Amino acid sequence: MARRTAKKKANEPSKPRKRIARRPAAKSRSNAKPDGRTLKKQLADALEQQAAASEILNVIRRSPSDVQPVFDAIAGAALKLCGATSANVFTCDGDLIRIAALVSVTAEGAAAARRTYPRPVSRDNAAGRAVLTRKVVAIPDILADPEYAPRAAAYYRFH
Fold this sequence. Notes:
The protein is mainly alpha-helical. 42% of the residues lie in helices and 10% in strands. It has five helices and three strands. A three-stranded antiparallel sheet has the order 1-2-3. The longest helix has 27 residues, at 36-62. It is globular.
């Protein structure tokens, strides 16, 4: 089939071309395809979290009227999942924060924590900040934080 080309008349104005501006593709993690090693790590992490949640649910099922084993299981799971040297679970009655569970702390650290709690809700410790802000709190360096209480920081010297 022969292709016909329209010839432009000399006195006819040219039509403006529409240009579509294209944005460069944003570089983000979602555009990048993870490699096999990353996928295996993500899968292993997800399975570990699922196993921890399953264990906590089993503890709840086994002891429906006793919360202490549940708090201990939560602290143990947090210790393992975070790769931490210690993990604590706290409760708050509105005025005071109390220790519900301590896991993998030295005897000196446990004694220091028990001397520090119960304590009023305030910004001078991570648990108090979490209660006040209703968010997860991360304090990169408690010794450099001007709001952090020295007596609370002393507890961490024993880990």
